[in-house]
Amino acid sequence: MKIIVNNKEVDLIQGNTIADLARQLELPLQGVAIALHNRMIPRAQWEEQVLQPGDSLVIIKAACGG
């Protein structure tokens, strides 16, 4: 199935969760937030949130500096 991540098309296996996506993209364990259809999903719900074809996600990584 295809989803949109930060305006780019990504292929996933049907039934994958946000946590599966985070592992596939090798996201760090801290300093990352994910929004599904412009709604922030708490990290505690990533394992439960099953993605559907056409879902749109935004991944935000914390940056250090000033």
Radius of gyration: 12 Å
Strand order of the largest sheet: 2-1-5-3-4
Alpha-carbon distance between the two ends:
39 Å
How many structural units, i.e. domains?
Answer: 1
Enumerate how many helices there are, as a single number. Answer: 1
Biggest β-sheet: count, sense, barrel?
A: 5 strands, mixed
**SSE run:** EEHEEE
- Please identify the oligomeric state: single chain
Assigned CATH architecture? Roll
Helix fraction? 10-25%
List segments where confidence is low: pLDDT < 50 over at least 5 consecutive residues: none
Q: What is the mean predicted local confidence, pLDDT?
A: 94
The CATH topology label is: Ubiquitin-like (UB roll)
| Broad CATH class | Alpha Beta
Q: DSSP strand (E) fraction?
A: 25-35%
Summarize the structure.
The chain has one helix and five strands; from the N terminus they run E-E-H-E-E-E. It is mainly beta. It has one domain (2-61): Beta-grasp domain (Ubiquitin-like (UB roll), Roll), CATH 3.10.20.
Q: What report would you give on this structure?
A:
This is Sulfur carrier protein ThiS. InterPro entries: Beta-grasp_dom_sf, Mopterin_synth/thiamin_S_b, Thi_S, ThiS/MoaD-like. Pfam families: ThiS. By secondary structure, the protein is mainly beta. The protein has a single domain (2-61), classed as Beta-grasp domain (Ubiquitin-like (UB roll)), CATH 3.10.20.30. 11% of the residues lie in helices and 33% in strands. It has one helix at 18-24; strands spanning 2-5, 8-11, 32-36, 39-41, 56-61. The termini are far apart. The mean pLDDT is 94.
